[in-house]
Design a protein that fits this description.
mainly alpha; Mitochondrial carrier fold; 11 helices; 69% helix; MCP_dom_sf; transmembrane transporter activity; transport
């Protein structure tokens, strides 16, 4: 249970740190006309001021904390189960195969829970135009709604998606998310373990905050950087439908994106992803590890 609680705390802190750059990343990847990262930042600030970078933050602040709780809880408990099954001791060091399987399990579970959350977050982040300007062929019944955004908040966004597309609509882009998160979490937890062990002195039996912060940041940069191509596809699929529908599925999104923008389109947001991945993941792991130590009464904590 401590792993789930510590994951919740780590997730909440990471959202606060990473959400502004996550908004920039989403808008770049969704293909809404921004030239580069700096242009996206300046345009967002000019049109929406600082608040534009925090669009849709209230929802992930609560939901992503639960999501992180489940991901870290599943990873830690799967890792412990596999270690105990192999060596009959839950506190034995995990093998690379155990870390790999636990990471894959976290990736699979993350999609089931995180798909709808990520969809709502991206839909809210992508609301840069009023209804009438973006959707001239489908005017709302009341004129006072013409200059309002499509969604009034996370609950309205979720109910609108269900009414329009059914429950299956909440999992738009889930296949792309699965292809992103399963390898993504392998390149998240495994580098963290390896780097932590490498930079921790042999005589140090506790988790040093600096070690956790550095290892978590590097692992996050690696994971998010390598996940960028499929993250682009996922973001486009999930942003699709705010006003119009362009893509029929993962392969159609890949095909259309490549035909219109070339191979480089799959690396849109790579810089933002990598830079954002460091502080966000560093904060995530640090919040997780410190919370876990407090919850366990400052016992030795060596694994996420």
């Amino acid at each position: 249970m401590e792993d789930f609680v510590a994951g919740w705390i780590g997730g909440a802190t990471s959202v606060i740190v990473g959400h502004p750059m996550d908004t920039v990343k989403t808008r770049l990847q969704a293909g809404t006309g921004y030239q580069n990262t700096l242009n996206c930042i300046l345009t967002t600030y000019k049109k929406e001021s600082v608040t534009g970078f925090f669009k849709g933050m209230s929802f992930p602040l609560t939901s992503f904390a639960v999501y992180s709780s489940v991901v870290f809880g599943v990873f830690s408990n799967t890792q412990k189960f596999l270690t105990q099954y192999r060596y009959e001791e839950s506190n034995s060091s995990s093998s690379l195969s155990d870390l790999f399987l636990a990471s894959m399990m976290s990736g699979v579970v993350s999609v089931g829970l995180g798909g709808p959350m990520d969809l709502v977050k991206i839909r809210l982040q992508m609301q840069t135009e009023p209804f009438l300007k973006a959707n001239l062929h489908s005017k709302p019944r009341s004129k006072d709604l013409w200059n309002r955004p499509m969604y009034q908040g996370p609950i309205h966004c979720m109910t609108s998606i269900v009414q329009k597309e059914g429950l299956v609509g909440l999992y738009r882009g889930a296949n792309a998310m699965l292809l992103r998160d399963v390898p993504g979490y392998c390149l998240y937890f495994i580098p963290y373990e390896i780097i932590s062990e490498w930079i921790t002195p042999d005589n140090d039996t506790t988790s040093n905050p600096y070690t956790v912060w550095l290892a978590g940041g590097i692992a996050g940069a690696i994971s998010w950087g390598t996940a960028t191509p499929m993250d682009v596809v996922k973001s486009r699929l999930q942003a699709d439908g705010v006003y119009n529908n362009k893509y029929k599925g993962v392969m159609d999104c890949i095909s259309q994106s490549y035909q219109k923008e070339g191979f480089k389109v799959f690396f849109k947001g790579f810089t933002v992803n990598t830079i954002r991945g460091f502080p966000m993941s560093a904060t995530m792991f640090l919040g997780y590890e410190l919370s876990l130590q407090i919850l366990k009464g400052n016992q030795t904590v060596t694994n996420p």
